[in-house]
Design brief:
heterodimer; A: mainly alpha; 2 domains; 2 strands; about 0% strand; globular; B: 2 domains; 11 strands
């Protein structure tokens, strides 16, 4: 810097290297820095507060809380454990992702590659509107419309056709079931995954696609050979975002999952997820131990989300390294 | 730079203007009448929606209330974020210890009602008694044409339909009254599930969030039975179950029937904790609804709002205020005299 100044008669103005202190730069740095530090502080405070408030349950049950399948809030018979809710969270988010992934990628491909021009814009807008429907509204629709419809049409059919698979047990009595929760969650994560995938597909350079087609590939081969490898890392990240949404969704799941302390393989049974248990019981919690146990559930959920996010980052990095992804800016 | 300077001046000017506006607004609201903020029970929320405007008209004091659930109301009053909390279940020992200078005052009388969805059966057609209801909620009776139910419903044809039990998944005063009743009429319930509680470990059934959640499950499920606040049953025209009381009569949860149940209170304990479920079999209670419950307002004995609070609660206990909410639509019942006297005595401690 100094050498440039001395060798040139007129100082060369470089936007970010000048010695002059710009008020704007200082403000920008201060504001951006404070925002970044603020987030770290808030996350730290949340974790500290969760651990602090969950302390009665942590010191009473220790790590065993995680694998104990019991939840009894009656004063005098209190006993708490997270196992059934962990199971509920795992099974609902896994299957929701399993259902939503192919659909979301299909929608994204359709919108970028296959849809006629006139259809693209309205369908894109509709898919994105799906993300804007409040979860409590989806939950209401789930309990009043979707649940009963699934029970009478889909669940009974799946049970009679594939009843030998433990997943498809006897249909639920009321339409409130893990299966309904899975469908509701798939609907909720579908727009997230599909709109991110769409952006990723749109970012695939035209030359690559046209080059592939010029080499005589079919459309499917082009999608498989060019678009998927290009977007793989991003799609994986989108899926983890969806997973995070599915694990954390509380209200809609609370409305349709039916509740109960169960671990069973039938998707048509009832259950609870970590988030739905907190949502349904926290406000009405009566004893200190119950409140602490609910917060302990929250702590577990936070850890799960953290692990999911870290896994996502790891996957993205690994995929990108392995495939040497060419990105617009980096190519 | 000059442009930046200008925008900073603009921002500063705006900030000062905003600060002035906020201060002015604050001063204005300070000059306005007292406001009482309350939170808690959803069961009492319709009553406060009537009481609030009526009281504001007579006294000039505004009453804000949010129905966030009984447990939430207790937490809020313990943390002093509201002036009063409302709960359908009395404070349990943990809660009373946390809110040590709190008193609970019974200020309204309500009930919970078993309601059902049985194809072919109208409202008021199903008759049940306590032990049968307990067996249904224990999962021991699973069909509507079970002999135990059929024997109570001679002349009514009951379908060969599976029973789906619906209950609250959130902590609830209705659950408290319901489990209070079941634990008193069924020893099996008392030993298996336990005493009255706002949330229990249900042996069977589907959980719904809030009265609307349970109502939705019942509405969409032929064969379902659940319990719901009387006001909600009334407003949504759900099916009423006739319950057999200890005197042997099948009754509906009408205002007079709830009032009759409250006549069982002869003396009020110092903590005002009363249970009026399953009134005794004497002929005095022959029309009593067996699933009735008091609902409480919880306040700190000393607070800056004590005077305004005392006036408001005193007003709410007056026959005039009680009758405002005891009509065919809201279905609360006026609290009996002995309870009123005890409530006023407790209220005197608030200063």
């Amino acid at each position: 810097m100094a050498s440039i100044d001395t060798t040139s008669t007129e100082p060369i103005r470089r936007p970010f290297e000048g010695r002059r202190v710009h008020l704007g730069d200082v403000l920008l740095q201060g504001f951006a820095g404070a925002a970044a530090v603020g987030v770290v502080v808030i996350v730290g405070l949340i974790v500290w507060k969760l651990v602090d408030s969950a302390d009665p349950a942590i010191s009473k049950y220790g790590v065993g809380f995680v694998w104990h399948k019991v939840w009894n809030p009656v004063v005098g018979r209190e006993a708490y454990g997270a196992a059934s809710f962990l199971f509920g969270t795992a099974i609902t988010s896994f299957f929701a992702l399993l259902i939503a992934t192919p659909l979301a990628i299909g929608i994204a491909l359709f919108l970028t590659e296959l849809a006629p021009r006139g259809i693209q814009a309205p369908v894109t807008a509709l898919v994105e509107m799906l993300a804007a429907v409040p979860s409590v509204v989806i939950g209401l629709w789930g309990i009043l419309v979707l649940g009963p419809a699934l029970r009478t049409n889909i669940e009974s059919w799946l049970h009679s056709a594939f009843g030998f698979i433990p997943l498809f047990g006897p249909p639920s009595a009321s339409g409130a079931s893990i299966f309904t929760a899975i469908i509701v969650l798939s609907i909720m994560i579908l727009p997230i995954v599909s709109s991110i995938s769409r952006e990723l597909f749109l970012g695939v350079p035209h030359e690559l696609k046209e080059g592939a087609l010029a080499l005589g590939t079919t459309r499917w081969e082009m999608v498989r050979g060019v678009m998927f490898p290009y977007a793989r890392g991003g799609i994986a990240a989108a899926l983890i975002l969806g997973l995070g949404r599915a694990m954390g969704e509380a209200i809609a799941v609370t409305q349709v999952i039916g509740g109960g302390v169960f671990i069973h393989w039938s998707l048509f049974g009832q259950g609870d997820t970590l988030a739905s248990k907190i949502a349904s019981e926290y406000q009405g919690a009566t004893s200190n131990l119950e409140v602490a146990s609910l917060i302990y559930l929250g702590l577990i959920l936070l850890m799960l989300s953290l692990v999911a996010n870290l896994t996502a980052q790891w996957i993205v990095r690994r995929v990108e390294r392995r495939h040497g992804v060419v990105r617009g800016g980096r190519a | 730079m000059p442009r930046l300077g200008t925008s900073i001046r603009t921002i500063t000017a705006l900030a000062i203007a905003a600060a002035v506006a906020v201060t002015a607004a604050g001063a204005a609201s300070a000059k306005r009448a007292t406001t009482l903020n309350g939170a808690g029970s959803t069961l009492i929320a319709p009553a406060l929606a009537v009481w609030g405007p009526a009281y504001s008209k007579t006294s000039g004091t505004e009453v804000n209330y949010s129905g966030i659930g009984s447990g939430g109301g207790i937490a809020a009053i313990t943390a002093k974020t509201v002036d009063f909390g409302a709960s359908d279940a009395p404070l349990n020992p943990d809660q009373a210890a946390a809110c040590s200078d709190c008193v609970q005052i019974p200020w309204a009388l309500s009930a919970t009602v078993p309601t059902y969805n049985i194809p072919g059966l109208h409202s008021g057609q199903l008759k049940l008694d306590g032990t049968t209801l307990a067996k249904i909620f224990l999962g021991q009776i699973t069909k509507w044409n079970d002999p135990a139910i059929a024997s109570l419903n001679k002349g009514t044809s009951l379908p060969d339909l599976a029973i789906t039990v619906a209950h609250r998944s959130d902590g609830s005063g209705d659950t408290y009254a319901f489990t209070d009743y079941l634990s008193k009429v069924s020893s099996a319930w008392a030993s298996q599930v336990g005493p009255a509680a706002t949330a229990v470990n249900w042996p069977t059934g589907v959980g719904g969030k809030g009265n609307p959640g349970v109502a939705a499950i019942i509405a969409s499920t032929p064969g379902a039975i659940g319990y719901i606040s009387v006001a909600y049953v009334k407003q949504n025209k759900l099916n009423w179950t006739r319950m057999k009381n200890a005197a042997g009569n099948y009754v509906l949860a009408t205002g007079p029937a709830i009032e009759a149940a409250a006549q069982t209170v002869k003396s009020v304990p110092p903590d005002n904790k009363m249970s009026i479920v399953n009134p005794p079999s004497s002929s005095k209670y022959k029309g009593a609804w067996p699933l009735s419950t008091f609902t409480y307002v919880i306040v700190h004995t000393s607070s800056t709002q004590a005077q305004a609070l005392r006036k408001f609660i005193f007003w709410a206990l007056t026959p005039k205020a009680q009758h405002l909410i005891s009509n065919s639509f809201l279905v609360f019942a006026p609290i009996p005299k002995v309870v009123l006297v005890a409530a006023e005595k407790t209220l005197a401690k608030v200063h």
